[in-house]
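Please fill in the sequence for the structure shown.

STRUCTURE ENCODING:
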């Protein structure tokens, strides 16, 4: 198995290459190992345990906080285990390795008229994405992507390979769907349900000047509860090409017929200041490549990022001052931005949640993304994301792990009962704390 340790030449460069975010923590693992088979994962886990080192795991390295970069640990990098092992069209199931990129899975599925709610960008791998919850394309219709995981193959702390499902190691299965960076094991394969490809995939958006921020967000708060789950209603506030700020109201929609899609997307035309839009496109049928492309344009590689987030059910008038403060202080052009998403899990057409560690979500999701290049700005921009969310903490009901910032700000991503249950699972499967857990936790 390929591996490098700290004294080896190229170690720092190899470590840097494991993280998508160019802003990496100061910590340095002792060894980085790149297994390509399940047996090599077992070997790496056993080797770490015998050497008295903790294990950190990386699949696609898209954790904003580079959670896998841990002092003195063995870092197991599963980037090479990126295959789609099986797609069963009749059974509507698939088996995927953790290093597989969500966009690659969707490309294969779409070719067979199938679909899965993978994340919105090219790059994040299924390993971290599915463990933390997974807010994917058309995700309001299927629920968090982890809800579509039926079983997992896991290498445990004592080097055993087990299948976790509702019938076998059910507690490990429970934890695998939402404990994210706290999962006490190495997932080497996910067994997932897949779905029929929606027939009419449409994008629509209106772009507003910053001056109408209050009107746009007030309207968004009023209509949020009624947005059908087939639409991902969102507002992105960012820098325009001329350096001013602008508000993009978008509603990617996944419907079965054009009639249905037209009815759903018409909601964007109901904005009371729609005539103030700088421009808009009310209805554009698209393919998934265009969907990924549109989002990826906001998330360029090779930059330094600090992010933070919150769930809330507060009314828009209470949220707008905090949102305005985020927008007013966006740290660096051109890519820094803020996101408002109407997730609305209580909508009558959204699926009920299964019994799983994932247990905190709410009507509205707000996130702040700071992006810059100059290392001299690290401190200020890291504080920006944290402080903006601290300022709105009284309105928050929790955080989402997808955009976690736990090394800088503690946030609640499970119910109290689930934190207790998680501790019991960890005590049972990893009593000696072999696997690193999330950053704010010992
Ligand atoms: C540009 C960008 C866009 C994103 N878009 C979305 C989105 O649309 N929806 C969404 O939900 N999230 C999104 N995210 C968040 C992303 O899904 C999470 O950061 C996720 O953890 C990334 O998975 P990964 O395998 O690439 O990350 P990694 O950094 O490799 O993994 C994150 C953590 O998960 C654990 N882990 C990973 N793999 C395993 C494994 N096989 N076994 C055990 N533990 C493991 C480890 O603790 C690891 O530190 C985005 C992130 C970025 C940077």
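FILLED IN BY: designer on duty
SEQUENCE:
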């Amino acid at each position: 198995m390929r591996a490098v340790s700290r004294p080896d030449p190229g170690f720092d460069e190899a470590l840097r290459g494991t993280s998508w975010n160019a802003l990496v923590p100061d910590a340095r693992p002792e060894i980085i190992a790149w297994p390509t088979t399940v047996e090599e994962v077992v070997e790496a886990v056993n080797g770490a345990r015998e050497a008295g080192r903790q294990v950190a795991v990386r699949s696609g390295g898209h954790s904003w906080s580079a959670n896998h970069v841990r002092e003195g640990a063995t870092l197991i990098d599963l980037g090479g285990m990126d295959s789609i092992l099986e797609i069963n069209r009749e059974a509507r199931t698939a088996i995927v390795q953790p290093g597989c990129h969500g966009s690659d899975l969707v490309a294969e599925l779409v070719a067979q008229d199938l679909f899965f709610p993978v994340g919105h960008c090219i790059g994040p791998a299924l390993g971290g994405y599915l463990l933390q919850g997974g807010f994917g394309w058309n995700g309001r219709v299927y629920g968090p992507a982890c809800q579509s995981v039926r079983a997992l193959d896991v290498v445990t702390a004592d080097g055993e390979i087990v299948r976790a499902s509702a019938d076998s190691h059910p507690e490990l299965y429970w934890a695998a769907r939402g404990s994210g960076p706290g999962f006490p094991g190495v997932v080497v394969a996910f067994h997932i349900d897949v779905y029929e490809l929606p027939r009419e995939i449409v994008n629509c958006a209106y772009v507003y000047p910053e001056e109408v921020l209050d009107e746009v967000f007030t309207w968004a708060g009023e209509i949020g509860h009624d947005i059908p789950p087939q639409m991902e209603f969102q507002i992105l506030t960012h820098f325009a090409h001329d350096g001013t700020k602008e508000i993009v109201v978008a509603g990617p929609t996944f419907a079965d017929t054009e009639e249905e899609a037209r009815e759903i997307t018409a909601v964007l035309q109901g904005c009371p200041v729609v005539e103030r839009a700088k421009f808009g496109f009310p209805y554009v049928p698209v393919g998934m490549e265009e969907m990924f492309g549109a989002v990826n344009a906001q998330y360029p590689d090779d930059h330094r990022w600090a992010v933070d987030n919150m769930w809330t059910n507060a009314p828009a008038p209470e949220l707008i001052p905090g949102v305005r403060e985020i927008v007013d202080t966006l740290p660096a052009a051109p890519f820094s931005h803020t996101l408002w998403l109407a997730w609305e899990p209580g909508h009558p057409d959204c699926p009920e949640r299964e019994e799983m560690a994932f247990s905190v979500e709410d009507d509205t999701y707000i996130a702040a993304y700071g992006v810059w290049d100059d290392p001299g700005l690290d401190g200020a921009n890291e504080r920006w994301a944290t402080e903006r969310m601290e300022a709105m903490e009284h309105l928050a009901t929790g955080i989402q792990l997808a955009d976690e910032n736990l090394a800088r700000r503690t946030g609640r991503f499970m119910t109290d009962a689930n934190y207790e249950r998680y501790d019991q699972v960890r005590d049972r499967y990893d009593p000696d704390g072999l696997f690193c857990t999330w950053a704010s936790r010992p």
